[in-house]
Structures are given as structure tokens and as C-alpha cells.
Design a protein that fits this description.
By secondary structure, the protein is of the alpha/beta class. The protein folds into 2 domains: 2-67, Orthogonal Bundle (Arc Repressor Mutant, subunit A); 77-246. The protein is 49% helix and 15% strand. It is built from 10 helices and 9 strands. It has helices at residues 2-16, 23-30, 39-51, 77-89, 122-135, 145-152, 183-192, 203-215, 220-229, 233-251; strands at residues 21-22, 55-59, 62-65, 95-99, 115-120, 139-141, 158-163, 170-172, 179-181. Strands 4-5-7-6 form a 4-stranded mixed β-sheet. It has a 3-stranded antiparallel β-sheet with strand order 1-3-2. The chain has a two-stranded antiparallel sheet with strand order 8-9. Strand 8 (170-172) and strand 9 (179-181) form a beta hairpin. Helix 7 (183-192) packs parallel to helix 9 (220-229) and helix 9 (220-229) packs antiparallel against helix 10. The protein is elongated and about 65 Å long. The protein starts with a helix and ends with a helix.
Length: 252
């Protein structure tokens, strides 16, 4: 299967380059090497290539190579130090860290508040929370929207400690060794945790999703699998369909 995907993607790159293509055009391009290739088989290959972010759908039955930037999320020096302290104190605890300010580049209005997210596996969460309280001010454990309204909005560099969902999509920063959430996780969490991310709801949430899809290659399989675990799969499907419809209209 992997070799078949490599052949298919190589054909797309060599035959179509920067041009879009239809399923029929790709099927014809592959016919020399694979004269018995079924359309259903090709459909599964296209689905896999799209899920991995290598190609994107422009309209029904029309595709193109993805032209997106690789996802990057760098922690500032303060958050790097916090993460390093947690790793040293809790070497076996699974956690990830990221700043809410990452989202501001995609919003229409700049929020007046930002905070650090420290997501920790359930068994170690309260221990990490207590540890951070000893060394930092404004540390909150799974705050409600009311608590955020009362205590976080006017305080700089607040830290929110929350539960890390099992099998959350994350990657390791090769420079500092920190665990950082993948883009798919961040996008889903915005939907799944509206109380914590209440300043990024409504039109701002749609704008964040739209701009992230435009800038980065979003892995649909990762997105949908995590959304299913967070019980927001239907909401994610609905939002993706809405954004795709808007994109298709813009391209017409």
C-alpha cells in the first residue's frame, strides 16, 4: 500500500506539478504503469494522500498538491523554562505546553488576555499543579469560564493546568525536547473546551480554523480521530464542510 501511494504521488508531482487534476485525469496518467487499476482503488489512494496532507480537494473530484507551510509552534523562553522544570520534577509524566497567544495571528480582533496551557495526564495533574503554584503566580486548575472572567482576564502570564486527553496528537520540539500539541489537537480543543477558549469562539473560531487550513496542511485522519475522542466529531465535520464550501465558492 505504501509503495502504491508513493507511485501515485510521484505521478501527481511529475504529471500535474502545480496544476489541479481530476480523478479521471490521474487514472489515465497511471494507466501505463497500472492498466488494471480500479477507480475504487484510486479513490482510496486519494483519500489516504488527502488525509496525510499531501494533496487537497479543490472541489468534488478535483485535487491539487498541497501548498502549505509545515506547522510550527515555538514556546517563548518563559514557557520553555516552565516545561523544563516540569520534565525535571516529573520525568515520567506525560504533558504538553503551548501559549494561547499562538492563536492571535489568526484572529480578527486581538484578545486582551493570553495564558499558558499545561496539559498533564490525569494521574499527575494535581501534583504538577501544586508544584507550579510553589514557583509561579496565577496558576489555575481546570478553571471555569467564570473563574477565567474573574481571575485571568487582568493577570499577565497566567498558567492553566488541564487534563491531557489520552493519545493526544503531539510532537517533540527537537531543540528543547518539549512536548507540543499538533495543530489538529489545538483546533479540536477550541471546540471541545469552549469555557477555557471562550475568547476564541463564534466568528473568531471559524476564522482561526479557516486561516490554519489555508496556511498549514491539516491531517484529516488525525483531526477526526482526536475529535472523536473529544466527542466533537459531528461539530468538526460540520465546520470543515462549511469551510470547504466557502473555499470552493472563492475559487469559482
Amino acid at each position: 500500500m505504501k509503495k502504491d501511494l508513493e507511485i501515485t504521488f510521484a505521478t501527481i508531482k511529475n504529471k500535474f506539478k502545480d496544476r489541479s487534476f481530476t480523478v479521471q485525469q490521474l487514472h489515465e496518467a497511471l494507466s501505463t504503469k497500472e492498466p488494471k487499476l480500479l477507480r475504487t482503488t484510486l479513490g482510496w489512494r486519494l483519500y489516504s494522500l488527502k488525509a496525510s496532507g499531501k494533496i487537497e480537494s479543490l472541489a468534488r473530484g478535483r485535487y491539487a498538491q498541497t501548498r502549505h507551510h509545515p506547522f510550527e509552534l515555538k514556546l517563548d523562553s518563559d514557557l520553555n523554562k516552565i516545561s523544563r522544570k516540569i520534565r525535571k520534577q516529573f520525568p515520567y509524566a506525560s504533558f504538553c505546553a503551548w501559549p494561547s497567544s499562538f492563536l492571535n495571528q489568526f484572529t480578527i480582533h486581538q484578545p486582551s488576555v493570553s495564558f499558558y496551557l499545561i496539559e498533564v495526564e490525569k494521574e499527575a495533574m494535581e501534583s504538577v499543579f501544586s508544584f507550579l503554584q510553589e514557583h509561579h503566580k496565577n496558576v489555575f486548575l481546570n478553571p471555569t469560564k467564570k473563574e477565567i472572567d474573574l481571575y485571568l482576564l487582568n493577570r499577565p502570564k497566567s498558567i492553566i493546568v488541564k487534563t491531557l486527553i489520552q493519545r493526544s496528537p503531539m510532537f517533540t520540539d527537537p531543540l528543547h525536547g518539549n512536548q507540543i500539541p499538533k495543530l489538529e489537537k489545538i483546533l479540536v480543543d477550541l471546540l471541545a473546551d469552549p469555557d477555557i477558549f471562550f475568547i476564541y469562539q463564534g466568528t473568531e473560531l471559524e476564522n482561526i480554523w479557516r486561516e490554519c487550513f489555508r496556511k498549514y496542511a491539516v491531517n484529516r485522519s488525525t483531526l477526526y480521530n482526536y475529535a472523536k475522542r473529544r466527542l466533537v466529531l459531528e461539530k468538526v465535520h460540520k465546520l470543515v464542510r462549511k469551510l470547504e464550501s466557502q473555499t470552493n465558492k472563492e475559487r469559482q
